[in-house]
Design brief:
It holds the Pfam family Response_reg. Keywords: DNA-binding, Phosphoprotein, Transcription, Transcription regulation. This is DNA-binding NarL/FixJ family response regulator. By secondary structure, this protein is of the alpha/beta class. The protein folds into 2 domains: 131 residues, Response regulator (Rossmann fold, 3-Layer(aba) Sandwich), CATH 3.40.50; 69 residues, Winged helix-like DNA-binding domain superfamily/Winged helix DNA-binding domain (Arc Repressor Mutant, subunit A). The protein is built from 11 helices and 6 strands. A 6-stranded parallel sheet has the order 2-1-3-4-5-6, sandwiched between helices. Helix 2 runs parallel beside helix 3 and helix 9 packs across helix 10.
């Protein structure tokens, strides 16, 4: 399946470079380019890409605001020069599926697009440690009522997320379709009031518990 991508960056030369990189992969197609946040939102609503590569500092509407508007429309992968904490945390709170720096190698960028298109999250290694530390302090205290509201399968999926497993790995572990895994992840995040897989992973580790292999969906 070809992954349809929209590239949003206010620098034409940067956009051209990203497009050149992605178009070199047979499974990725750049379907549109945007020079500002407003244009990114409008094109995403029109073209319905699988992934939006979004810069943060753009005119008219910044990348974080654009990301919030695209919730439920497309998966957003932030691609920026700046690894400022405010941007990292803001991107994840806005609903971004990933955060990468523009010094990422070409092949790694293409792989990141594939990861996000599969429904998994991805964070630049350079910011992962401090991100986990910061969100660890920010994750709400254990909420037994919300956790008790999860189904048995959702608890198993949560435990797997806590082990750092991707959707594909969870599907194999629990013997269910990857689309079903995505549904369980979305539902448990909603039930727990969490905004990202990072928060879910931290909460899962706090709550403890294993990921037992079972059959059924």
């Amino acid at each position: 399946m070809t992954i349809r991508v929209l590239v949003a960056d206010d620098h034409a030369a940067v956009r051209a470079g990203i497009v050149l990189i992605l178009d070199g992969h047979h499974d990725i197609e750049v379907v549109g380019q945007a020079a500002d946040g407003d244009q990114a939102v409008a094109l995403a609503l029109e073209l319905r890409p699988d992934v939006v590569l979004m810069d943060i500092r753009m005119p008219k509407l910044d990348g974080l605001s654009a990301t919030r508007r695209l919730s439920g429309v497309a998966d957003v992968l932030i691609l920026t020069t700046f690894d400022i904490d405010e941007y990292v945390f803001g991107a994840l709170r806005a609903g971004a599926a990933g955060f990468l720096l523009k010094n990422t190698e070409a092949d790694a960028l293409a792989d990141a697009v594939r990861v996000v298109a599969r429904g998994d999250g991805l964070i630049a290694p350079a910011v992962t440690r401090r991100l986990i530390s910061a969100f660890g302090a920010a994750v709400p205290e254990r909420r037994p009522r919300e956790v008790e509201g999860l189904t048995q399968r959702e608890r198993e999926v949560l435990a797997c997320i806590g082990r750092g497993m991707s959707n594909a790995e969870i599907s194999a572990e629990l013997n269910m379709a990857e689309a079903t895994t995505k549904t369980h992840v979305s539902r448990l995040l909603s039930k727990l009031g969490l905004r990202s897989r990072v928060q879910a992973a931290i909460l899962a580790q706090e709550l403890s518990g294993g990921c037992d292999r079972r059959t059924g969906e």
